[in-house]
Design brief:
- This is HTH cro/C1-type domain-containing protein.
- Residues 7-43 form the HTH cro/C1-type domain.
- It holds the Pfam family HTH_3.
- InterPro entries: Cro/C1-type_HTH (IPR001387), Lambda_DNA-bd_dom_sf (IPR010982).
- The protein has 170 residues and is mainly alpha-helical.
- The protein folds into two domains: 3-68, lambda repressor-like DNA-binding domains (434 Repressor (Amino-terminal Domain), Orthogonal Bundle); 85-165.
- It is 67% helix and 0% strand.
- The chain has eight helices and no strands.
- It has helices at residues 3-13, 18-25, 29-37, 47-54, 57-68, 85-104, 117-148, 152-165.
- Helix 6 packs antiparallel against helix 7 (117-148).
- The two termini are 30 Å apart.
């Protein structure tokens, strides 16, 4: 889905009009309409502003991929995904256990330069399992935010404050 179409769908899911959004991002309603229909390309520098103003979990995931290329987490959606909170917790538990199991089987005392081809293959599998676990966790945050009316924007802001308080570099 093109970014403009995704923006329109997210805006509608959140009950925001084109006029409301235009006032929040300081662009005309006509410009917003053109971005949504694809007659004008949404400037990349506008992605974060629009995404934050719409504050829609699914849209965060869609624009994440657009703004970062391949370094993103997909939004888990579709016929085979159950967004129910209990199902999401189960998915996170399962994916995290698989990731930890793969990590437990690696030799962490060995220097990276001494890894064999087989060990590098095992490390790659462990990394992929950890990406699955991370994706399931972020999707659970999105699902629970949506179900319980939390703002992902607000949650991420609070999380960043917490990281800074623990002296993490952002």
């Amino acid at each position: 889905m093109a970014i403009g179409e995704a923006m329109a769908a997210a805006r509608k899911r959140q009950g925001i009009t084109q006029l409301d959004l235009s006032q929040e991002v300081s662009y005309s309603r006509e410009s917003i309409a053109k971005y949504e229909t694809g007659t004008r390309k949404l400037p990349r520098d506008m992605y974060p502003t629009v995404t934050q103003q719409i504050d829609d979990p699914e849209f965060y995931f869609e624009t994440w991929g657009e703004t970062t290329g391949l370094v993103s987490i997909p939004y888990f959606n579709g016929d085979h995904i159950d967004q129910h909170p209990a199902s999401m917790v189960y998915l996170v538990t399962k994916e995290t256990a698989e990731a930890m199991d793969h990590l437990d089987h690696l030799n962490w005392g060995k220097p990276a330069s001494a890894y064999t081809h087989e060990e590098m293959t095992q490390l790659e599998k462990a990394l992929l399992e950890n990406l699955d676990a991370a994706a399931s966790m972020i999707n659970m945050v999105a699902s629970l935010s949506k179900t319980h009316g939390f703002s992902m924007k607000s949650l991420f802001q609070k999380w960043q404050v917490s990281l800074k308080a623990r002296k993490y570099k952002l």
